Structure formats: C-alpha cells, structure tokens
Amino acid sequence: MSDWLTEAETRAARHGSERMRAAVESLTTAYRSGKPTPQGRLDEDLLASAYLAVRFPATLAANHKAASHILDALAVRAPGFPAPCTLLDLGAGCGAATLAALSAFPSLTTTSAIEPLGSFAALGQQFLPGTIWRRTRFDAALPFAPHDLVWASYSLGELPHWQSILAAAWQATTQILVILEPGTPHGASNIQAMRTQLLAAGAHILAPCPSSTPCPLGQDDWCHFAARLNRTALHRRLKDGALGYEDEKFSWLAAVRTPLLPGAPRILRHPLIEPGRISLSLCTAPTLSPRVITKRDKAAFRLARKSSWGDNFS
Question: Is the pLDDT at 33 greater than 80, yes or no?
C-alpha cells in the first residue's frame, strides 16, 4: 500500500464515515462548479483528509497523463530540448503534480512547492520530504523565482486574479509552463483564456494543441481530456461508487519559450467505432478535421483501433 493511501485510510478512520462523506461532497461540489476549495466551512484537517482520499488520486492521474503527453510532444516537436532541473509547483496541494513531474523528468534535482493551506502542505512534506515547501498565498509569494519547469495543477482558476499570477508564473518559467484545470466548461474556458494570454506574451503551445494558432473550437464546445484511475476501496466507499474505476476529466496546456516543430493532430473525442469504419474528431489547429477511416486503409485502421481520446493521430 502506498504512503498516501495508508495515510488516507488512517485519517478516514479517525474522522469517521459520516464526516468524511460530507467533506467529500463539499469538495466535489466545489470542483464541479469551479469554486475554491471550501476552506473555512470545514475543519482544515478534515478537508485535507477528504482531499487525500478522493481528489488526490484523481489529480495524480490527470497530472501523470499530462506529463506523458508532454514527453511525447517534446520528442516530436522539440528534439534536443534540455532536460529541466528545477520545478516550482504552484498551489501544490499534497504534491500530486510534483510526484508526476518527478516521474516524467528524472533530471529534476530541486523541487519547490507553494501551498497556502497548512494541512495540505504538511501532507506534502510527508510524501515529498526532499521538496522545499512554502506555506503562503500566491500573492504573498510574488515574484516567483525562476525555475525550468513551473506547474500549476487545479490552482490558478480558483483565484479571482489569476491573470496576474499567470503572468508571474510565465515570467518565472525558463523552459516549460504546465497548467491543469477541471475538465468542465468553466475550467476549459479558463484554459482558453490562459492560452490567449500566454500567446500574447510570446509563448509557444507545446501540448495538447498541435500548434499555437487560434483555437478552432466554438463557444458551445470545450477542450478536455480524461485520465482513468482505479478506485481504492476507500474511494468507492466515500463516493458510493459501484465501478472499480473513475475517469478524471481535465483541461490543460503546456507552453514553452522556444519555437516548435508542427505537432500531430489530436483526437478530441472518443473514437466512434462502427463495423468496418472508425470516425475521429481531430484538432489540426487552426481547423477541426473529422476523419473517417475504413478497413481499406489497413495501416491507418490499425492505428485508429489502438488510439484513444486525447492521443495524437497521424
């Protein structure tokens, strides 16, 4: 059993099922509505315990998925890109993004995290004792020190003044800036606005977009992806979940300072599989390119059968 799961089980037993369920519901409601973590309305230790049980594994899965796509994009669009050595995790929570970054980039030698909630930071220090933790609000930490890799997971969009924090985060980024938001219309809208601000500041979009051109999606659509995670017994118990898995929906972007080679089209929806044909919704920014692949195109059909929502396809 992992360290975080052992800690989650211990905390759940201490707080009791009824209090934990109420805290989980409060967290889930805030997440879906795009509101900040419900601090002040709940005991902070209870809030951290509920987060660790249900949101931490989902957040970890989403960040691992994003990190994997970043590595793929760097290999194709920026061969020879220098390996990052320093990481700044903004709104680190219990350290999910840092854990994902360390797994993807073993070159990281120094990791720093900023988290305003003391109970969350305490858990992060427990899981990541080698990380430098600062317990403070974002605006109290400005300006951020330069880091090769700056990562903000489910944190910027909760702030009413995220534009100034994003500007400071980009200023601190020497190589790659990564931002994840909930995969809701509100979260995707935030990512779209953040993308626009970064492009105006001279950034190049590494992923998930295949280029830095204007987004081709209309106002009634939103770009989001999913990371599947196995639910723990505790997770199922607290959320009354019958399934053994959960799909964490998220919107995200990764931006760099250097120009990039063109990227491959990105699959924006679950492939529609029918007898003898597969339909794909592809982003080839600046346009959307629906594509129907039949068995006549054997190589493309084999590739399409192996492809999933969020993958590159070329």
Answer: no
